[in-house]
Amino acid sequence: MAYTVLARKYRSQTFEDVVGQDPIATTLKNAIETERVAHAYLFTGTRGVGKTTMARILAKALNCLASKEPTTKPCCKCSSCVAINTGEDIDVIEIDGASNNRVDEIRDLRENVIYRPARSRYKIYIIDEVHMLTVPAFNALLKTLEEPPEHVKFILATTEPNKVIATIQSRCQRFDFSNISPKVIAEQLKAILKKEKIKYEDDLILPLARMANGSMRDALSLLDRLISTGEDPLTARLLEEFLGRPNAEKIHALVEHIGDSNAAGTLTATEDLICTGLGETQIVDALIESMRDLLVLKSAGADTDLLMLTSDQKAKAGELAQKFDVAALIYNITALEKLRWSVKNSDTPRALLDALLLRFALSAHFMSVDELMSRVHSGPVADVKKKLPVESKPTPTPPPRSVQRVAPSMTTPPAVAANPVEADALMESWPEVLAMIGPSLGNGTAGLLSGTAAYRLKDDVLTIEFPATGRVQKGMCEGKERAERISLAISEHFGRSIRIKYQIATEPQVGETSNPARPNGQRRYEILNDPAVKTVLTGLDATITGIEEGQQ
User: Fold this and answer.
1) Domain-terminating residue out of 350, 365, 380
2) Boundary (domain end) residue, out of 154, 176, 198
3) How many domains does the chain have?
4) Which residues contact 449 (CB under 8 A, 6 or more apart)?
């Protein structure tokens, strides 16, 4: 007798046998019991999740000859049920939409639906991969699908519902088949191995279930391949030797080297994986899966159902997760996913892989543009790629404000003094000064000053310059109450009485050339707030000593 593959041998025969699609099975059973079976159904979902199987079960339930009427429990023994199981029933016609997609074939179908079934209650058309029909073929099916004869039922199945035209979908009851969870697949695999009396190691089942990507048929096909090796018992090692799954220990070692900032170890571990025959894409996929486990572990804890690992694997993952923080893992997974598409189209995928993994391992030595820009606004930020131990250092007690001299930096504006050098420093760091005194000014006043520049500081009189378009804002700031608030906030910030004077920036006259060594207030403000300038200043920890604009 010919061998029957597991996917066919253990195909669900009744609604109760359906695995992973209980809501759909329950809905169809209720429709049969209440005599509300629709004339057309559309089953959608990825491959191997049970669309065609559910269509056959529904056909058996409607046409079972052992019952006088449609039943939710077909006998699976009568001639109709047996013929439907093998796809040979004369009243249940299975059509492959990929090879019968022309309008002429759909016209033949329309001509045949008028004839009553030969022996069953209904003539049922199961059209698989219906999205492969041409648009003329879809249009030819429209009227029949909307108002078929009473003895006809349509069940359409597709993996790409977006390609099924809207007028067809509107004429069907649609059921979306979800991917089957690895936990459910694992339980089914254990049950089948027990029935087949095949020994296996527990470490085999969960990785095999995850490799199926939500498809029960794929899981059974993979299990068939492992059984064909003749190994007894089946072990996790077979997944690496025969199914191309990356070695879990080697992936663990690679992630560990990344977490330890071990550049040489990272490259060596990558080379070790390459030498086993894995491609760069496979390594990237394995790293994404591993770091996703660490992300779930740190975010939801070791007891979460989202983590499909054995007890030993959870223990190892818990130790490894201590080397990363959540932000690090999110960044790494995102970067790996981008790399995944790059390596497929690159002539040097190995170089791209090595570069990114070293980027992870040496993250403390790199700074992205986003980090540089964030430091301009919020000060230094901690390394977000990897969680590293930081030694706490005692903070020295600052001297009294009256004698404290603080160098210009990213977070602390310079103290104002009467000498020209510190006055220039104030003018260069004016946006940072506004950010510091903003809470005491209030949102409205701070907003009015947001476009200004510190033009001159002389004899404790600070001249604030508004752009040429800021006359209204200048007038509002000169109001008695608001002017006092601004003067008080600036005086408190610098520890001495500062008087404020306001002026409007003068526009250069036609033919007049402004002093390149001293741009006007509006231009100075634009230069100081340019993102590129801020990035360079922050990244180099630099201070502007003067502004000169070259002639263009």
Assistant:
1) 365
2) 176
3) 4
4) 434, 441, 464, 473, 477, 486
On whether the CB atoms of residues 543 and 408 are closer than 8 A, the answer is: yes
For residue 208, give both structure tokens.
């095999």
Shared domain check, 256 and 210: no
Query: Do 164 and 29 fall into the same domain?
Result: yes
Of 41, 54, 49, 47, the closest CA to residue 15 belongs to: 54
Quick check: pTM over 0.70?
no
Single-letter residue type at 326: V
DSSP 195-236: HTT--B-HHHHHHHHHHTTT-HHHHHHHHHHHHHTT-SSB-T
Identify whether residues 342 and 487 lie together within a single domain: no
Residue 482, amino acid: R
Residue 200 falls inside a structural domain:
yes
Rounded Cα distance, 383 and 476, in Å: 43
Mean pLDDT of all residues in the chain? 81
**Looking at residue 303, what is its pLDDT?**
81
141 shares its domain with 14: yes
Within this chain, do residues 152 and 273 fall inside the same structural domain, yes or no?
Answer: no
Residues 221 and 36: their CA atoms lie apart, in Å, by 36
Element (H, E) at 252: helix 248-259
Angle at 294 between CA 289 and CA 299, to 5 degrees: 125
| Upper half-sphere CA count for residue 83 (Cβ side, 13 Å) | 15
* DSSP bridge pairs for 56: none
What is the residue range of 434's domain?
420-507+515-540
Per-residue pLDDT tens over the stretch 8-47? 999 999 999 999 999 999 999 999 999 999 999 999 999 9
